[in-house]
Design brief:
By secondary structure, the chain is α+β, with helices and mostly antiparallel strands. The chain is built from nine helices and 15 strands.
Length: 347
């Protein structure tokens, strides 16, 4: 019987140094969190609602009771809902190396099953968890025995002072577009994108245009030479973050980049349950329009958001961080048992 690609002795020997670096990085980060008085959680993966973002796709399964009753469940796309319930329960500092699952994702930076390092600080502002991210990136590099993060020939020094870039600054600098003038009119935004040389189909939504500009013109320049914190997202892209108190057109949200790769996504958390329901319903309406499906809202999560304290939190792609710190060429090289996505041979 022919060995599969990842478990053949030759392939395992090639990947082994990345896997050993993964273990060292995980141990170092766990020690750092524990020294900061964080509690490690172990959030269950089976949930009634897997998350309510239009373009995130969950694995669906069925729970069958002893009496034969069937209930639809999902594998969570992140531990976010569960961890915020724990904040509402009274916990104040939490982290989880959570197994997460996302359908329709593949490639050198994506895997359908991966590890999400997620953490929350009650009472913290966004700058607190942004600082956590910088410390974690440095700790990962040290544990891997390197001074640089590397991806496809590009390098990032996590020990250098990070770059702080607002979305408005990034759009102006890299795309020549004044984002503040195009926060509501999708047609005008599309014309600006076309003028900047970005192909966007007619009828594209505002978010479609925003994403096309971000991916084409901006992301390839981020995290070059040093970490980049891209922050102050337009409110329409707030996800589960709160509006900025000084300008409600924008949200207290950031993403962290190294070598052009997105590593983390963080929020000062939304605690307005009414606004949460509006956003989630809008996302599911969009999901149904684009993909013909929707996920249920979780009433327990909505109630927990109303009860949880002020907090800031981050979801970091642990596998991607290991990949950049260990110099791996693909995410599959840092997964102990990569999923077999190729078609199984016929008997």
């Amino acid at each position: 019987m022919e060995a599969s690609a990842w478990w053949s002795p030759e392939q395992h020997a090639r990947r082994r140094r990345h896997l050993l670096a993964r273990g060292r990085i995980k141990s170092a980060l766990r020690s750092w969190f524990e020294a900061q008085d964080f509690l490690e959680t172990e959030c269950g993966a089976l949930v009634a609602s897997p998350g309510n973002e239009a373009h995130l796709h969950a694995f669906q399964t069925q729970y069958v009771t002893e009496g034969g009753q069937i209930r639809t469940l999902y594998l969570h796309t992140s531990p976010e809902f569960a961890m915020k319930k724990l904040l509402a329960a009274g916990e104040t500092r939490l982290f989880d190396f959570a197994r997460a699952y996302r359908n329709r994702e593949e490639g050198v930076r994506h895997a359908p099953e991966f590890t999400m390092l997620e953490w929350y600080r009650a009472g913290a502002v966004l700058a607190d968890v942004m600082n956590d991210c910088a410390v974690i990136a440095r700790a990962a590099a040290e544990a891997a025995g390197t001074s640089q993060l590397v991806w496809k020939g590009k390098t990032c020094d996590p020990f250098a002072e990070p770059e702080w870039l607002t979305l408005a600054e990034a759009f102006d600098h890299y795309a020549g577009i004044d984002l503040t003038l195009h926060l509501e009119d999708a047609a005008a935004f599309r014309r600006a994108a076309l003028y900047a040389g970005i192909g966007v189909p007619e009828g594209a939504t505002w978010t479609d245009v925003f994403s096309a500009i971000l991916v084409t013109k901006i992301e390839p320049h981020l995290g070059m030479g040093r970490l980049t914190f891209l922050h102050r997202y337009p409110l329409s892209e707030a996800a589960l973050s709160r509006p900025a108190p000084d300008d409600p057109r924008f949200a207290e949200r950031f993403e962290l980049y190294a070598c052009g790769v997105e590593l983390a996504n963080g929020y000062r958390e939304l605690t307005d349950a009414g606004q949460l329901v509006i956003r989630q319903q809008a996302e599911m309406d969009l999901k149904e329009a684009v993909y013909g499906e929707r996920y249920p809202l979780d009433p327990d999560f909505i109630a927990a958001v109303a009860a949880m304290p002020e907090a800031s939190g981050v979801a970091l792609g642990f596998d991607r961080l290991v990949m950049l710190a260990s110099g791996a060429g693909a995410i599959q090289d840092v997964l102990w048992t990569p999923p077999a996505l190729e078609q199984a041979p016929r008997p």
